[in-house]
Design goal:
- This protein is of the alpha/beta class.
- The protein is built from eleven helices and 24 strands.
- The protein has a seven-stranded antiparallel β-sheet with strand order 7-8-17-18-19-16-22. The protein has a five-stranded parallel β-sheet with strand order 10-2-1-14-24, covered by helices on one side. A five-stranded mixed β-sheet has the order 4-21-20-15-23.
- Helix 1 links the parallel strand 1 and strand 2.
């Protein structure tokens, strides 16, 4: 039996790719259907530190007992609901050809080979694929064309159910018995302990939960380090008309991406009218910019385990000099007439939720925390990782489309699966 752990975009894309090869799979998740997005988003905005769970109180209490975590100097959102974090954010999708491949061991041509497949997948999800190229405004600003969608995985799930893909909910995988190829599972509702044998296993539960599961299962791995894109807010005054609310900024030696939100946009995050007037920039001059700093200068998150408790600690990047960054922002404001960045508000490490790069693709099979180009975990039989954990870097561009396309590539090109 082939199992996939995780019911978000990554997990369902894995099932979709396997099905394209005629292989049936079963998706395991502790998921429930309750949607309490507003509560978790408010906690995310107000809480200064910690693991914020987008679950019901019942499920959160269960998860906290099963996976006790001490979170230090970082914050992030997790969702164990059916559909994972797609229930919170939906997806932001750009042109797959414009992703930064500089730090990737996978050639751009290998990714673009499956461009038709990713477009077909997005059609099923009902997310529009953007073909338009980006526009260079000046030497400091690059206007980006992205498609914004609040679509979760429900359309893709309906498609997979028609293809006879099995979904098993209310099951939390605590540990993998690697020697005997058995999953050790806790039934959320009945508290029963279940053992399920597997022939192949795909970990698609997101970089933090994937890291916890590996630390629970492999004794000689003591620590896993996640990359991120450091998150900060900025008060921005727009002086000239912009066609898109997405752009990249080159500011001295720093590079970051930015999304503009008006007050209506921010309020709309909590209601159904999120997409209404999203790109109506001309009626406003002041915006809140949600910014993501290049991972070369971002912090990292260390995950380790002692006894029965995880320690999850954010570590600042000492190469990032805040005072120098602020000086560069002042120079940027003088050189650039399109917009001005007035105030900066730095968030905790991890708050971007653009995480991954913890178990990257490598050519060296002796590296414990590494995978082959097909996502197979080094030194372990029939274990694959299919989420953003295996990316070599976390770019400032939205990682959703690149991560999903990479999953399609690694499964469809693997002749041994």
């Amino acid at each position: 039996m082939i199992y996939i752990i995780g019911s978000g975009f990554s997990g369902l894309t894995t099932a979709y790719a396997l099905n394209k090869k005629g292989i049936k799979s079963t998706i395991i998740s502790p998921g429930e259907k309750n949607k309490i997005k507003n509560i978790s988003l408010i906690k995310y905005l107000l809480k200064n530190n910690g693991e914020i769970l987008n679950n019901s109180n019942f499920l959160s209490k269960k998860i906290n007992k099963l996976n006790k975590s001490n979170v230090i100097n970082c914050k992030y959102l997790l969702s164990h609901m059916e559909g994972g974090q797609s229930n919170i954010w939906g997806g932001v999708v750009g042109n797959i050809g414009e992703y930064n491949y500089n730090n990737s061991l996978i050639k751009k041509s290998e990714i673009l080979k499956y461009k038709k497949e990713i477009i077909n997948l997005l059609k099923i999800i009902k997310i529009k694929y953007i073909k338009n190229k980006n526009k260079k405004i000046n030497n400091y600003l690059l206007e980006k064309n992205y498609s914004v969608s609040k679509k979760d995985v429900s359309n893709l799930k309906r498609y997979l159910l028609k293809k006879k893909i099995i979904f098993k909910n209310n099951l939390f995988v605590k540990k993998i018995d690697l020697k005997n190829s058995i999953l050790k599972i806790h039934d959320i509702k009945t508290n029963d302990q279940i053992s399920l044998p597997y022939s192949k296993l795909f970990l698609s539960c997101g970089p933090i939960e994937t890291s916890k599961l590996i630390l629970n299962s492999i004794k000689n791995i003591k620590k896993i380090v996640l990359k991120e894109t450091q998150h900060f807010y900025a008060l921005i005054k727009v002086n000239n008309k912009l066609k898109s609310r997405f752009f990249n900024v080159i500011c001295g030696k720093y590079n970051f991406s930015c999304q503009l939100y008006s007050l209506k946009n921010i309020l709309g995050l909590f209601f159904k009218n999120y997409l209404k007037n999203l790109n109506n920039l001309n009626k406003n001059k002041y915006f809140i910019g949600q910014c993501y700093l290049n991972s070369n200068y971002s912090g990292k998150i260390n995950i380790s385990k002692k006894s029965s408790k995880f320690t999850i600690e954010g570590k600042p990047n000492f190469r990032f000099n805040i005072s120098q960054f602020k000086t560069d922002i002042k120079k940027f404001n003088k050189q650039n007439k399109v917009l001005n960045i007035k105030k900066l508000f730095f968030n905790k490490i991890g708050a971007s939720n653009h995480l991954g790069g913890s178990i990257p693709i490598t050519k060296n099979r002796s590296i414990k925390l590494g995978v082959s180009k097909y996502g197979k975990l080094n030194n372990h039989k029939n274990i694959y990782i299919s989420d953003s954990s295996i990316l070599n870097d976390i770019d400032i561009s939205p990682i959703t489309i690149f991560s999903l396309n990479n999953i399609l590539r690694m499964i469809l090109s693997n002749k041994k699966i």
